[in-house]
Specification:
By secondary structure, this protein is of the alpha+beta class. Helices cover about 35% and strands about 20% of the residues.
Length: about 70
Amino acid sequence: MTKLDFSNINKKSADSFHQQRNQIKKVLRGDTVLCEQCNQPLALISSTKDQALIGCQKSCTAIDMEID
């Protein structure tokens, strides 16, 4: 039986999580963060009591967050 190696998948997933977390921090701090696809600035698009959405105007980047 062969062992499956998920280390590359786990590393990419962790890197993606950390990148999004850092983008969220910068946007909420008021720093300019550009979308990687269209180079439009990311902004807080909508926010409710329990959810927030950060993204660009063209919606190529959309980070949906639950707020506790």
